[in-house]
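Page header: ASSEMBLY MODEL / five components / 1884 residues total.
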Amino acid sequence: MFALPALIALPFLGGLAAWLVGLRNGSARLPWLVSLLTLLLEALLLLGVTGMTGGSGWRGHFAMPWIPLFGIDFRLDMDGLSLVMLWLNLAIAVPVLLTSSREIKERPGLYHFLTLATIAGINGVFLSTDLFLFFFFWELMLLPMFGVLLIWGGEHRARATLKFFIFTQGSGLLMLLSILALVFVHVQETGQLTFNYFALAGTGAMSRAAFPIMLGFLIAFAVKLPIVPFHAWAPEVYAEAPNGGTILLAGILGKTGAFGLIRFVFELFPAASAQIAPVVMAFAVVGILYCGWLAVAQDDMKRLVAYSSLSHLGYVVLGIFSGTRVGMEGAVVMMVAHGLSTSAIFLITGFIEERTGTRDMRRLGGLWPAMPQLSAFAMFFACALLGLPGIGDFVGEFLTLLATWHVNHVMAFFAAAGSVLSSIYALTWMLRVFYGPPVFAGEAPLGRPVAGVMWTLGAATVLLLVIGFFPQPLLDLSAPAAPQQIVSLAGGAR
Amino acid sequence: MSISLLLYGLVAICATAMVITRTAAVHALLYMVVALLALACVFDTLGAPFAALLEVIVYAGAIMVLFVFVVMMLNIGSPAEQREKSWLSGGIWVVPSLLALGLLVTLLIGLRSGAVPAIVQGAAPIGPREVGLALYGPYILTVELSSFLLLAGLVSAFHIGRRIGGAGIAPLHPDGVHVGVNEHRGVDR
Amino acid sequence: MNPNDPGAALAIAVVLFVLGLLGVMVRRNLLFMLISVEIMLNAAGLAFIAAGTRYHMADGQVMFLMILAYAAAEAAVGLAIVLRMHAAGRATLDADTGNRLKG
Amino acid sequence: MTALLPLVILCPLAVSIILLLSRGAMPARATCGLVALGMGLCAAIAVTEAVTFLTGPASTGALHVVLWNWMHVGGFGAQFALTLDRLSLVMMLVVSVVGFLILLYACAYMIDDPDIARFFTYMTLFVASMELLVLSSDLLGVYVGWEGVGVCSYLLVGFWYHERPNALAARKAFVVTRIGDALFLVGLLLLATGVGRLDIGSVLAIAPMAPRPAIALGCFLILGGAAAKSAMVPLQTWLPDAMAGPTPVSALIHAATMVTAGVYLIARLHAMFLLVPGIMFLCAVIGFITLLLAAGAAMVQTDIKRVLAYSTMSQLGYMYLALGCGAWQAAIFHLVTHAIFKALLFMGAGSIILRVHHEQDIFRMGGLRKSMPVVFYAFLAGAAALAGLPLISAGYFSKEMILTSAYNVAPLFWLGGVFGAFLTSIYIFRCVFITFWGHERTHPHGRTTIVEFVPLVILAVLAIVAGWVQTPEVIAPMHLFSTLLAPVFGPLPEEHGGGMLLLIGSIVPIIGVSIAWALYKPRHKAPVPLETPWTRTLRADWGFDALYDVLFVKPYFALARLNRGDAVIGFFGAVAWVTRTGGAMFAHMQSGQVRRYAGWIAAGTVLALCLAV
Amino acid sequence: MDSFSFLPNAVLVLCAGSLVQMAAIAIRRNVAQDAVLGLVVLLASLAVILAPTALVLTGTLPLFAPDAWASYTAALVILSAIAIHIMSWRNSVLSDTSVGSEYYLLLTLATLGGVVMSSAIHDVSFFIGLEILSLAMFGLIAFRNARIDAGEAAMKYLVLSGLSSAMLLMGFALTFAETGSLRFLAPVATNAPEPLLASMGVILVLTGMFFKLSAVPFHLWLADVLEGTSIPVAALVAVLSKIGLFAAMVRYFSSINLYVSGPQVDEIVAVAVLSMIGGNLLAVAQTNIKRMLAGSSIAHIGYLLVAFLSPGPFSFASAAFYLAAYAIATLGIFAIIAGVMPQGSYISDWYGMFRRKPVAAFAMSVMLLSLAGIPPSVGFFAKFYIVAAGISAHRVILLLVLIAGSTISLFYYLRLILVMILPRPSDSEAHRQMPPITTPWVGNRALIALLAVATILLGVFPSRLVQSGRQLLDVPPPPGPSASP
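Prediction written out in full:
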């Protein structure tokens, strides 16, 4: 019963504990242990939750009134999609916190708190089925992120944070507008004031105002994901954030946008989103090509990966807006795989930055002999980026392309052409950083590999391979449950 | 009677126009007194003798005198007049005049199209008695509250004027930026 | 024109009001600004009295009294400020130059 | 016996993983031993499987091994499954056996390289991918292998990553083939949409019923993928550069196996291609053009490996010509013989290169006949096979088979093919004469080891005799190969004009060799490469590289560079600028002048009053 | 006339209190004693608001409404005054024993003005309340004797306030001329086809109101005044006076159908749009923290006008909630500035505040986030409420502007937080020494803590406040008891 709220509360409380512990004695060790313990508990909890099965695709449920005057509940529901995203969240959280001790020298307790709070907020986003609550978490998960960005970010962090803040919050307000519009349309039609997702699903599907309302949601999610014309914040933020923050951002925070697209845009407004789907898909294709193209020109490693990430997210959007089951599940697989691979790559770039002191590829080169293991991992993840079959990304890419082909051949063709561009930038990255004559000469001047990083990368490798070769369980799990499936249940609960 | 009203009004308007165009403050104040007296006549013509009296006593008698005092205290001489003249020349009139004209035209249009007034024919003027009854009848609370208005004005004026004698003004930093230390000193004294 | 028609008086009030406004907008001397404000308040008072005449109500004159009280208080405070600014080094009473609060 | 089939893939894969996990800690000899063991096992299993299959009950059909269900979503399903039929059997044998021999050779070749473990990691991974490619019964599985070999090719071309050109060549190889891969992928999308699954059997079964334009498009896309992989015009530019890798890599990947994957794929889907003659014709034309262009380019190369690379392209052109003409058996037959003799040639070249201090310019070699006799004879055998010297070479029979079929489709193709053969015999013997005859310009050092000899000798023997399994009717009624593949491709079609064609085809190579001898026979003066604008253009791949550079590569990078800051970000920057300017404007409104403020108040009021009026 | 009027208890207490304060000053000057007295008066007036009984005077005009809206806004005004009172104590400007006492007296008078305004239902009472507040504010603004800025600010405010008061009065006069009634907006009730003169009068009245609310384009004085005056007085200008005036404005227009597009409604819409855009743009360009807050304040007035323009189930409740949220956050910011760095008027003075005063910086961030409307602060729910009101009234364009404005506003709110987190850049403005950092006195600390906690708690659990607000304001405030004009 309380498993779902616990999923949200646990990281938050754990983070708080880590902070307090860190305040008491300034060492980094204790907060680290506390947050590790938190993650462990979270994993156990999640394991327990995974066992939950409900009929009709919704696996867990929790509800209590919050602001009854507005019909706002504290309502959480979990379906397979949320479950997958929760696991992904946890999987991303591990490297973020595990590697923090290397990077975060200053106020580690606070860092752990902010990170875990972000994770709690993200969990909330994945679980909430009250639109107000969703929006609440939606905004809430960003706040600690701003802190992370601002306190531990790079040289131009102020600018980057401002951008991030303005883009996400501004678009969030648009979504708020849409949520309220939806609610009031519902009120007009049924006379019932409620923010309940299930209750609103019917209204969203039917209303004539569905299109503009859907647009508000769409833009908010498009900014968060981001889809191309709204991506202007992303490269800079990815580049300026501390590595843990970048991993969190690229690995899971952006995925909330995709999750929202599925859960809210597509499930709430099937007709309206089908109407706009060609446009969004066109943008996605443009994004795939455009960002893939720009990635190659970047000198900053993190910016390169950022652009590659943007390019890949285009496939997610394609899959979602293809409107087919294949595309939807492909998008989910893509999200998971992309989360893992991008996180791993950011981990690698972070490690390189730590060792060489720079991310500028003009000052890097020939790292392979100096860090052979890391380079091997880099090669693997570069392959993941360029969509090598057998790695998880390919499954997602293929399924989304397949779904796109169903809808529009030309788009699918150009999206597939994106794989050429991805191979160009991925290999250019390899070329500029790991190949060529060594810039940092010497036997092993860059120090020994770090077991934690290597194990994390290894785990990511294994996971990606498993997804690549055995995606079926994930596919089965990740099908989003339709909101209509629970209408009767919701009626009972209210 | 209507002629006289218009006449008085014309005087008031002309005098007011003189007020806002004079360069010497004293001249302006004198024209202002003229305007106020003309207005008092207007009031009387309108059947408000009490208001007319107050206009003369309070406005012309008290407020204007206050202004005159201040002008005397400030001792504004002929260089000031020259300066005023230079300030009032040229394009400075253009935009304000246009705005004023706009306001005038729109308000006059509003006045013209006003609903037919409910005129009480041949009514007696509203003398001090009626006003007094109103003031101390239905408006008693207003009168009480206006005393607090005056109190607020009094305290404010008293407070603002109080420090003139003292050297309470902190010197300015050359570049116009206040330095915190100065402020402290100014305060702590 | 009907002698009791307050329309004419209202028109006079409006003209005076606009003149006062013009004064505020045109003059740079603080003292003249205050005078102009007085003109405007006075015009409003005239309008009240005229309107009161139209309905033969004392309310207009009561309102005029209130305005009078406010005008007096405001003039007092305003002149106090003028004096203080003068004492503080603003010799010219110019409201335009020497502004430190802007932007 | 079906249980053994996955082991063909698993053995090299296991070796690869073990080597990967060893992190280079294993001694070089142990590494070689492990590789030899693994690959030997692989080859042995392959042979066993082949024998059992051919003797088994299903010898004319196919053997399916379903490994696991890969994905099943909506209406689409894909499996990891292996199919052994006679075509994949041939391919499996080529990959396993030739692969085994080349890896054996590589053990000797690479023994001194400190990164030998990494090398064999890639190599064995490549073999595993290639086996998957040829054995998979699902096109998506084929695609897995397809990309796998591509990545391995990339890794191996850039194996010596210290030098930037190598890395650049590796990237180029991958990206150019990736263009084809993308086409292939789109083709898969098309098929998957139409069929619902990518199982080759189902695809072929449904293809005849599908609308013709769709099939044509699908075939075109797959042809595109195959052409890029096989370095056909217009996507041929990567192969010469790919010679930057170690020579065994060139032997295995860029001669024997990977580049022929396209041939295999088209042969595998021949039933579909047969439905669209237009695409078949296109395929033939592509092959035709490539074989001539590449042969022309090979004429003027100075780098021994580039000579071989262009010859590979040329020979692949023959195969595509054959495919386009519907001569499936001929194409596969040439594939097999080419695998043998080209691997042989590359290994010979490798041995030379190894001993002449990694010198690859043939004009700096010379006179190696005496110092490296075994290599010389082996290379000679390979050259003979490549040139198609009549009767004594494997290449002769396969090439004749192709030419005969081409003649039956269009005599022009035949003519071109013969001309190509003429050029081939000239350039390869130019290479032989310059390298092995004349004065010694670089003295070889060291010795060629026995481990190198064994594969060389085996392949040399095969290069001479292997052709006899399939001979023209005129010479001998030997049809072993076509019979073997008959269950897949059907019986060999009736051929016309055999004798005359055969005669011409047999004479032309001899003329070519004679001309080469006339031109490049040992003289006092050391031979120098011909330097004219024409030859330079030819040497640089007919200018394709430069053209692509100007047309695509440079603009791509330069424009991206130009837009590095991202115009979209710039747009939002402009929005921010507008905001700031607006802010400044509003701040400017606050001039601090009271009368201005009063003016604004009046203006607002007047405007509102105008609204009312 | 057998009419009657309520006299709100708070007005009575404040009147009596100010007299007592004055007497106390006359007897013996002691700042501490006068300050405590002022606080007692304010607290007493707050207490009596809740009293169920109210004084009723017969035979007088109905000047005050005894309804929930009046009580609520009056309470808000008094609470703001208490907060200002607390943050004023030990303010360096006011510590001067010779003048400090008057400050508290003027504060009480200003509160009186605000309370009178908030419950006024008659032109006269509104005017009187407004002018009590204005006159008290002249004195308060000029209170910083030590600086010429204060005088300049007071002068500007005085002239413009006089101008706008004249406009307001002219407007009252014109409507009076047209309708013969000084009751709030009787014209609508009496004249069915809206007479031009009356609507012009209303427009003039609006000018006066917008000036006091500092809505664009009548806003220009606000930044100058806030910058020129001391921090507590700035808080008073930005919060207290606006609450009172907004309350009166709501009541003034309560009988107009704001759905119907007329000249007044059009003007309000235009002004709302301009305020939301202009205020935020203005704030973006500022380097002075008080001027920035002025811009923010202007923008918030714009948001409030959106609620004002959205009649329906949420209109007044949302405006009431927003007023509270705005007051809490703005007062909190001013309290922090007053307590931590009274002279830190430049944004760049706040660099590294998170290191130097972490708690204060955190509280400041909470307030700023609340103003920006980001959860879990109360500002978020307030904005949500307003958007809900707007949506229910189909004010989509206004809401889009609101969103655009809010998006712009994020820039400057976050910039301040950012500045507080970042260390001070070494190169820029190195020549300027940082103003000293002080430790707020315990009352101010308690005030800051209370406001910060309220910001978060009300943000997470707005239910109770909304509930009570809805109960209070279920029906829009009536123009007064149904007495004949």
